[in-house]
What does this fold into?
Amino acid sequence: MKAGYITVLSLIVIGGCIETSKEKISIGLSEQQVKNELGIPDFISESSGDQVRTYKGNVSPKYKWPDDAIKKYYYMNTSKEYIFKNNHLLEVRDISEERRERLLKIK
It folds into this structure.
């Protein structure tokens, strides 16, 4: 019985993790925890209502957007996009080629 419990628990833990090249990022982590693991993102995109702003990761915007705004961190070296809402990681996906080209045009 104990072995079955451990197996189920292990599957739950593994299922909630996304493994990238050398690190594990769990859904639900805070933005700061992801930054601590992966470093400063190359680009950040925020959307709230019908407004969107995108800027380089090492730039601090003049004003803070609401916590419920969707925030995306882009890491170009791994081609991954990390999506946050209310300071919690919701999803990780590949950066599309079209998005990659648009991001690289940002100065």
